[in-house]
Design a protein that fits this description.
This protein is α/β, with parallel strands linked by helices and 171 residues long. It is built from five helices and nine strands; from the N terminus they run βαβαββαβαββββα. It has one domain: 3-Layer(aba) Sandwich (Rossmann fold), CATH 3.40.50. Helices cover 32% and strands 22% of the residues. Bound molecules: flavin mononucleotide. Flavin mononucleotide binds next to α1 and β3. One of its GO terms (molecular function) is electron transfer activity. Belongs to the flavodoxin family.
Amino acid sequence: MIAIIYGSTTGNTQDIAEKVAQHLGSENVELFDVKDVGLEIIDAFDQLIFAIPTWDYGEVQEDWEEVWEEVDNYDFNGKTTAFIGLGDQLGYAEWFVDAMGMLHDKVVARGAHVIGHWPVTGYEFDESQALTQDKQHFVGLAIDEDTQRELTDERVAAWCELIQPQLAEAA
Ligand SMILES: Cc1cc2nc3c(=O)[nH]c(=O)nc-3n(C[C@H](O)[C@H](O)[C@H](O)COP(=O)(O)O)c2cc1C
């Protein structure tokens, strides 16, 4: 089973988490709102997808903020992990999907095996904390419901196809 753990203030990240669950097959996925369940469920899953929007100029979303310090208490060794970040590349071009990068860095430091890097092609932003070292990829799926909503469905579908074989391998 795959756990998708999300936080969402205005519902966009929840929508994307649900779309990803549909693509991966609802029978393979359990969805958790971090506001309701916290992080304890991490221990019960070896395949995790974290979904997090960025708020307030490069800050993590409020429900993630509540559990932020606790992330460091978990051991992610042996866990296959992917990330989804929501943001607005025009309105917040200097902080685009920063929170995804911040969460990624914490989880990687605790041993996670990360899958699902996603090309920066097709996005326009100035800076992001969620880039790989060569700056050619995001560390996970970047979704912009504010300015590129029309691209969301194809991005979600393509990203799910990308991660699905790696999830199957890890299962
Ligand atoms: C006040 C405010 C601040 C925001 N700050 C950022 C930001 O720093 N970086 C970014 O990429 N997006 C930013 N956004 C855009 C949100 O991340 C985006 O609307 C996202 O889809 C919200 O997800 P949610 O509905 O799951 O909370 C901001 C939006 C608002 C309204």
